[in-house]
Amino acid sequence: MSAETVEKAIEKKPAEELLSKRRKKLVTDPLVDDNPITIQVLGICSALAVTTQMKPTLVMAISVIFVVVMSNLVISLMRNTIPSRVRIIVQLAVVATLVTLVSEVLRAFAYDMYKELSVFIGLIITNCIVMGRLEAFALGNKPYDSVLDGFGSALGYSWIILTVAFFRELLGSGSVFGLPIYDTISGLFGPDFKLATNGLMVSPVGAFVILGLIIWVQRTKTGYVEH
Amino acid sequence: MQQSNAYIITFSVILTVVLGLLLSGTSQVLGPLQREAEALDKKKQILGAVISGEEISAMSPQEVNDYYTNRISSIVVDINGKEVSEQGGVAVTAETVDIAKNYKKPADQRLYPVFIYHAEGNADQVESYIFPLYGAGLWDAIWGFIALDTDMNTVGGITLAHAGETPGLGARITEPGVQARYVGKTIFDESGDLVAVEMQKGEGKDYSSQPHQIDGMSGATITGKGVNSMLKDYLGHYEAYIESKKSGAVAAL
């Protein structure tokens, strides 16, 4: 995280490309090398809670992307006027407002999803990824860069929880996005053939196991060591 | 950068006002849509006791509303089974009775809505009676709707919902597989006493020969107990109404 704060002192070129190398890095870095979940180990709570099925996980991912991008934008726009002594409260107020907006919109247009996710949508406020990006990046960078940075981090969070949800739903409920994969497969082999689902995957413990495996695979590939 | 206190206070006040206006504006704009979504959800839950969840999810909101209007009529009764049409000068309808709010009152002061599922276009040809349920699970409230056949004894179907039961354990009461266990069970024993249907401890046993017992949910015994007492309590509150319908049915024969 500290690496990006230093980047404040960027070159003062008159016009930087819309998607310059540095800006691309803002989006791509959090996907693998600086992933908020697997490297920074933030946002674990919701990664465990919402990932039993793909569909709510997707809604959660979209909500987090919206909240992180918008709060990064708003805070970055206000960064020179925010009094530093109350900046955390200001950030919190902005994030809470955005989260409430998401929750209200879901309640009006996707009530079933709202019922399923309600508590966890509210808990986006406490998702460390949001506040982390605001503190570490949006407070010291221009709006466009902050939007890219927020988008990258939220995308890094999203693909991990979607991957976890994919395995949990497949192994735990035998389906993907509600499509009964297991039933289709066992249908091919006759009535006696049955694939058993794993109850562990439905409980939060399953998410820990999957998440651990993802971190293991990723760190083996990137050679990342905790320091 | 150290700002003056006046600046900080002004900033906070402006921020609060702006965010407050934004939120109350949203709530004003979305409010009607949200109430509509909630009413629709309640209708889906009520219908869930008599038709399968797949059928309901295949319906558009308009179809759910139409189906509900065509097939459900409703009344409100009190603890003695007498029909209530107003309370404190305000007309009451079954759809607007807030079960959760009524649950906080003493049982003999609550309003008890009854939803009557009847043949299309003929309100007299009753197919089943649907009663709301409300109670406490392990962590938070649980509720649902139970449908009784016209003999006022056989369970035609049930929907159960919860606010915060453990996913994979108590939350399984929402699964169609668990709810199907209730179908065909009876709530009165041979001597005519209300015993409701009791979910047992443990899972995987066969209770098909037991008219008042169903298989439990492994690891969710307390939620199961909550469901049991909710069923027994609420069916008990409706007992006067149920008895009146029972004797009425006999008299009509």
TrEMBL record, chain A:
EC number: 7.2.1.1
Membrane topology: Multi-pass membrane protein
Catalytic function, reaction form: a ubiquinone + n Na(+)(in) + NADH + H(+) = a ubiquinol + n Na(+)(out) + NAD(+)
Top-level taxon in the UniProt lineage: Bacteria
GO cellular component: endomembrane system; plasma membrane
GO MF term list: oxidoreductase activity, acting on NAD(P)H, quinone or similar compound as acceptor
One Pfam family, short name: Rnf-Nqr
Lineage, top ranks: Bacteria, Pseudomonadati, Bacteroidota, Cytophagia, Cytophagales
Gene coding for it: nqrD
Record keywords: Cell inner membrane, Cell membrane, Ion transport, Membrane, NAD, Sodium, Sodium transport, Translocase, Transmembrane, Transmembrane helix, Transport, Ubiquinone
GO BP, one annotated term: sodium ion transport
Species of the source: Algoriphagus zhangzhouensis
Function of the protein: NQR complex catalyzes the reduction of ubiquinone-1 to ubiquinol by two successive reactions, coupled with the transport of Na(+) ions from the cytoplasm to the periplasm. NqrA to NqrE are probably involved in the second step, the conversion of ubisemiquinone to ubiquinol.
Protein name: Na(+)-translocating NADH-quinone reductase subunit D
Subunit: Composed of six subunits; NqrA, NqrB, NqrC, NqrD, NqrE and NqrF.
Membrane-spanning intervals of the chain: 58-77, 89-111, 117-134, 195-217
Family designation: Belongs to the NqrDE/RnfAE family.
Record localization: Cell membrane; Endomembrane system
TrEMBL record, chain B:
Membrane-spanning ranges: 6-25
Keyword Lipoprotein found: no
UniProt xrefs under SMART domains: FMN_bind (SM00900)
Sequence positions bearing FMN phosphoryl threonine: T221
Annotated InterPro entries: FMN-bd, NqrC
A single BP term in Gene Ontology: sodium ion transport
Any one annotated GO CC term: plasma membrane
Locations listed in the record: Cell membrane
Predominant subcellular localization, coarse grouping: membrane
A single MF term (Gene Ontology): FMN binding
Catalysis: reaction(s): a ubiquinone + n Na(+)(in) + NADH + H(+) = a ubiquinol + n Na(+)(out) + NAD(+)
EC code: 7.2.1.1
Family statement drawn from the similarity comment of this UniProt entry: Belongs to the NqrC family.
Protein name as it appears in the record: Na(+)-translocating NADH-quinone reductase subunit C
UniProt gene name: nqrC
